[in-house]
Amino acid sequence: MRFATRWAVLAVLLLAPAVPAPHAAAQAPLPSIAEKTRGMERRDGFVPVYWDASAGKLWMEVPRTGEELIYVVSLPAGLGSNDIGLDRGQIGGERLVRFDRVGPRVLLVQPNQAYRAVSPDENERRAVEQSFAQSVLWGFTVAAETDGRVLVDATDFVLRDAHGVVAALRRSRQGDYRLDATRSALYLQNTRGFPRNTEIEATLTFTGDNPGSLVRDVTPTPEAITLRQRLSFVALPPPGYRPRRSDPRGGFFGISYFDYATPVGEDIVQRMISRHRLEKRDPSAAMSEAVEPIVYYVDRGAPEPIRSALLDGARWWNQAFEAAGYRDAFRVELLPEGADPMDVRYNVIQWVHRSTRGWSYGNTVTDPRTGEIIKGHVTLGSLRVRQDYLIAEGLLAPYATGTERPAELERMALARIRQLAAHEVGHTLGLVHNYIASAQGRASVMDYPHPLVQLRADGTIDLSEAYTAEIGPWDKVAITWGYRDPPAGANEQAALDAVLAEARARGITLLTDQDARPAGSVSPVAHLWDNGADATAELRRTMRVRRAALDRFGQNAIRAGRPLATLEEVLVPVYLHHRYQVEAASKALGGVDYTYALRGDGQTPLTPVPAAQQRAALDALLATLDPAELALPRPLLALIPPRPMTYDPTRELFDRWTGMGFDAISPATAAADMTVGMILNPERAARLVEQGALDRRMPNLEWTLNQLVERTFRQRPDDEYLREIDRAVERVVVERLMVLAESAPMPQVRATAQQVLLNISRMITEHAVPYDAHGALLVSDIKRFVERPYQPQQRIAVPDAPPGQPIGSEDEF
Asked: Which residues cross the membrane (predicted)?
């Protein structure tokens, strides 16, 4: 009975109306902003801030709640590891935001720009806004108010991991880090305001246990990583910008969104290019100055003569803007003394250091509504120029006495830096890669250029045309298409189509990343780091250059006083000089020549690569597997001792089975694996199956694999060194066939690869090829593979090649 009584009393208490305490007072009115900030340091600007030194707090005045602005996160001071990312100057992406006042709270809201209704009907717009989520990025408490302007404490908002440093460290498996608030603070030197932007910077320290090797390489105390983070609030650009619709043939990246106000039957996805605002002073003139030119600034941290090379290369773009009808509309200058490279008012070419060579890239701050580029920001890795210098050393071996300073080396390295500056600035102008350009006479700086190395009549190497020295014809077409406004009264779409049609008539077109980057891509002309209109002919020419360089390679490739063991660093790019031309030639196999054809534009959509061209490509590829081509000169093998103290091995060197000693076999194995791996790409193999079925005159997969086996298993070199390389190549072929037979998605590919493996086993056991210990192991391995179950293990028999492209992932461009 007592239990029930207690519950009854509790119910009465819960249901009884709340009675305010007699001493409760009404909420005190908020102080004015002037009262609250008395004694604080005001830093005026687009979003004014106040520094309270005694409390260590940063207060932010929100002047216009409900109005949209752009919010950007960046890293003014980075980590210095290409593999992890987190570079100096890295921009984390822009967001359209607004401050919404809700009683005592202010919410930083990011509207959903991916889904819109571009309509004057408010109800139609509201239906889309309420159908998709928005994001509230932060919540503030109002501490003071004056005439609708509110003051909020921004300290915690600023002192947080907005850039995602912890996530980047976790992705790269560098340890479990967390932000340490006790070791973080405002960085007042770079916290400042301007009429159209406010910059707030902080020093952030991340602490953790068990730091990974990449962190250990670049931090003085790996358990504490201190970086600087920037938060920028930027005013929206003024009205007047005219968005331009995207066209896959035009060569621009941009923005896209779903427009639910689009009439049924039209494309609901709207695509707009990204570009800077540029207007002629005299719109009616064929050539006119700009109302406001586009100006880029080069980082003063770049030393001479690199600084001048960066200025020269970036200025090439003025040629393209002149072709588009603008006089002196693109300028490049040195960053003014004291200017902040992260300030969104400056388009910047920044010189960035890392512990290893890595990618350069062009980034932008863009208006998410329209695609208008507000700031271009180029990141150039400083070690790229040194890598090109090293490549030139290996190709020329120019040090007869070891004390020379050959001018050709610096000339080539600086020529590459000019081209690189132009390339990355091109991205910040809105341009995508154009990987067909090398097949069209080096038509664009937006390609990835391999140095064009030529042989003189006397057999010596010529680097005079290693890189281009000006903008390409495609670059002029792209800038004209993207930036030139048609004459008044003209049909814009017709005028833009005419620009591209005229370029096609001159043989100038576009193919970009998805057409060239995958190892199994289908285009025979779109590749990275290649040369020439005919990839097969260029591969044969490149092999002749490679052999000439290897035959003269020796201690003349390094300066006097350098350890002879460091010859290997210079040797690697020479020995693998053909690696990307191999990739280019392989894409003729099962390849299809195509364009970004639109209905009605008169282009031929696709044409299979002719059978004769495919067979010629395979023949050139198989020639790279000849043991005589893979062998290193014997005098060179007698020059490279084990590495001395303090010259530790790096991933830039060949893997080896021989411990400390240089390995004479593994470089050949790695090079062979590159060729065989490209031939046996599973997507390429599937296309060979299909093209053989559609046209019996075309090479099919069975014929291709049989050619591979004939050219690699029928070798009988007399030289024992060449014989060991031959065995290494045979092992590569068997290992790659096993991978193809086990993991290819297409069953017909797996079946054909397994049958070829059985044929190899039969050849060996029937003594059609030499049956030695090597052959016996191959037979045993093939038998084990065929008698499933089989779980592929790590392929320890084939070493990886040292990296060719800049080390690490290419996250941006």
From this structure: none
What's the per-residue H, E or C state across 613-636?
HHHHHHHHHHHCCCHHHHCCCHHH
- In a domain, residue 626? The reply is yes
Is residue 345 one of the residues assigned to a domain? yes
pLDDT of residue 16 exceeding 70, the answer is: no
Residue 788: pLDDT band by 50, 70, 90 thresholds?
Answer: confident
CA distances from 528 to 404, 417, 600 (A): 34, 18, 30
Q: Are residues 131 and 225 both part of a single domain? A: yes
Residue 200 three-state SS: strand
Q: Which domain, by its residues, includes 633?
A: 539-786
CB atoms within 10 A of CB 810: 14
Distance CA 435, CA 450 (A): 12
- Domain boundary among the residues 234, 264, 279 is at 234
Rg (CA), the chain: 32
Domain co-membership, 567 together with 599: yes
Q: Which residue has the tokens 């208006």?
A: 367
- Burial class from Cβ neighbours inside 10 Å (0-12, 13-18, 19+) for residue 523 reads buried
Burial 335-371 (b: 16+ CB within 10 A, else e): beeeebbbbbbbbbbbbbebebbbbbbbbbbbbbbbb
Q: Are 230 and 75 in contact (CB under 8 A)?
A: yes
| 244 and 222 in a common domain | no
Q: Which of 234, 263, 283 is the last residue of a domain?
A: 234
Q: Hey, what are 176's tokens? A: 């479990």
User: What one-letter code names the amino acid at 658?
Assistant: T
Q: Return the SS3 of 739.
A: helix
Judged against a pLDDT cut of 50, whether residue 534 lies above it is answered with yes
CA–CA separation, 291 and 279 (whole Å)? 6
Tens of pLDDT, residues 488-526: 888 999 999 999 999 999 999 999 999 999 999 999 999
Asked if residue 455 belongs to a domain, the reply is no
Q: Which of 664, 667, 685, 654 is nearest to 751 (CA)?
A: 685
How many domains does the chain divide into?
3
- The tally of CA atoms less than 13 A away on the side-chain side of residue 11 is 6
Is residue 565 domain-shared with residue 632, that is, in the same domain? yes
- Round to whole Å and give the CA distance between 633 and 728: 17
The verdict on 424 and 287 lying in the same domain is yes
Question: In the numeric block, which tokens belong to residue 518?
Answer: 């995958």
Mean pLDDT of 50-54: 97
- Residue 190: burial class (beta carbons within 10 Å; 0-12, 13-18, 19+): middle
State the sign of the Cα–Cα–Cα–Cα dihedral 653, 655, 659, 664.
negative
Q: Report the C-alpha gap between 82 and 807 in whole angstroms.
A: 7
The Cα 754–Cα 101 span in angstroms is 68
3-state secondary structure of 50: strand
Q: Are residues 490 and 603 in the same domain?
A: no
Quote the distance between the C-alpha of residue 71 and its chain's center. Answer: 23
Give dist(CA 432, CA 686) in Å, integer.
29
CA distance 685 to 45: 61
Task: Note the pLDDT tens digit of each residue in 465-496.
Answer: 999 999 999 999 999 999 999 888 889 999 99
Q: What is the 3-state secondary structure (H, E, C) of 62-97?
A: ECCCCCEEEEEEEEEECCCECCCECCCCEEEEEEEE
> Apex CA 702: angle with CA 769 and CA 537, to 5°?
90
Tokens 């990987």, residue located: 435
> DSSP code of 246?
-
Q: What residues are paired with 226 via a beta bridge?
A: 205
- The pLDDT tens digits for 277-313 are 999 999 999 999 999 999 999 999 999 999 999 999 9
Buried b (16+ CB within 10 A) or exposed e, 438-448: bbbebbbbbbb
The answer to whether the beta carbons of residues 729 and 630 sit under 8 Å apart is yes
